[in-house]
Amino acid sequence: MVLTMFRRKLVLADLGTSNTDVSSGKEVHTFPTLIAYDDQGNQGIGESAQRQAGIAHLIWIKSRARISSEEENYPDAFSDFVRLTFEEKLRIKPDESVDLMMSEPTSMTDFARKQIIEQLQLVPQVERVYFLPEPVATAFGADLEGSYILLDMGDGNTSMQAFKGKVPVRVRSGTSVTFTAQQTFRAGRTMTFSTSEVLRNELDIHLDVSSSVSQNYMYTVELKHLLLSTQRRIKVIDENKKIITVDITTELQNKIVSCLFDHKWDSIPIHQVIRDVALTAKAMSTALLSTIYVTGKPFTSEAVYYIFSKRVNELLREEREAFEIQKIDVQRLPNCGHSVMAGMQKLGKKVQEESKRWIEL
Fold first, then answer.
1. Which residues pair with 100 in a beta bridge?
2. Ordered DSSP codes for 160-201
3. What sign results for the dihedral spanned by CA atoms 335, 338, 340, 346?
4. What values do phi and psi take at 320, rounded to 5?
5. More confident residue, 54 or 346
6. Theoretical Cys-Cys bridge with 271: which of 189, 209, 260, 315, CB 3.0 to 4.6 Å?
7. Neighbours of 170 (CB within 10 A)
8. Which residues make beta-bridge pairs with 67?
9. Contacts of 195 (CB under 8 A, 6+ apart)
10. Termini Cα distance of the chain
């Protein structure tokens, strides 16, 4: 059994919202993850498809196969995507065996993971699959040293990783639930809800995002990125399909980011989670609070990044004094597929040989 394991090829896959990267070595092949058609039949791929989500019928594209927003259509699209990728791009023969390591976005649900496993069982080449948290791969891809916290802001959930050197550290949350390597909460989703509230209260733009699977919700997710970006003016489509021009101010951005630190929302405020990580680290005699690395789409704007860094330092002043830390150094990491793939390449062989967490298919 051990000998056959070493003969298997290791294939890496980073499932992104806009694009998916796949590799079995140095060369990385990129595919659009989704495609959208508007009422006029215009096509959008990747990020442009996300921007159309509020007014378009979304269709997920997996290479030649496709799966629509209705589950009964093209149920085997993911397995077709994997099979075609292996045989056409990676030149893996139908009778070869591989181990597949997949980065796991912060928004990955148990249902989605189960669906992926069921689809992979239809691909004869794949014998085992391993789900690696994307922030862990990002940290290794950025080649970070020392002790630090990595905060990955997702569209729905946000993942908190504590590291001592190259080792993820066990973290205890404010709800007394212990997580290993990953601290996930709904700050990203909270930002989406607050974005719709800011649009309604400040600009009289009404978008109902009560359902997380609605087109309005997907559209607001993309709007959140645009409102927090470096752009100063964007066009917004309200629920009545009316186009409204919005001037983006730092004040507007500040109000959206501030929701991360507000107790009025259901999710745990982000500074409280960071504090819990710090207290856990202190109990382990590990000073992790000195550097916080932030990654994720919402932090593409310097204004937003400055607001976040300033607020973190303000709200954790007492913890800084208790830890005798002069300042919290908040740094930004690039969040892109190739960085994730680089991290998986560094971890892949070691995990393949030593880890017992592989899922046998």
1. 11, 129
2. EEEEETTEE-EEE-TTS-EEES-EEESHHHHHHHHHHHHHHH
3. negative
4. -65, -40
5. 346
6. 315
7. 13
8. 60
9. 220, 223, 224, 227, 256
10. 15
In tens, the pLDDT along 287-324 reads: 777 888 888 877 878 888 899 999 998 888 888 887 77
Type of residue numbered 317: R
Q: What is the pLDDT of residues 115-135, one digit of tens each?
A: 788 888 989 999 999 999 888
What class, spelled out in words, does domain 145-333 have in CATH?
alpha beta
Where exactly are the structural domains of the chain? 2-136+337-360, 145-333
Same fold, 2-136+337-360 and 145-333: yes
Distance from C-alpha of 155 to C-alpha of 312, rounded to nearest angstrom = 20
How crowded is the C-beta side of 127, counted as CA atoms within 13 Å? 15
**303 vs 78, 106, 153, 251, 298, CA distance in Å?**
39, 24, 16, 10, 11
The DSSP letter of residue 89 is: I
Residue 349 has pLDDT above 50, yes or no: yes
What b/e readout covers 290-318, taking b as 16+ CB neighbours within 10 angstroms? bbbbbbbbbbbbebbbebbbebbbebbee
Q: For domain 2-136+337-360, is the CATH number 3.30.420.40?
A: yes
Q: Give the torsion sign (CA, 7, 357, 154, 70).
A: positive
* Distance set, CA 10 to CA 24, 321, 339, 340 (Å): 6, 46, 18, 15
pLDDT-based confidence at 86, cuts 50/70/90? confident
State percent of the chain over pLDDT 70: 79
pLDDT at residue 2 above 50?
no
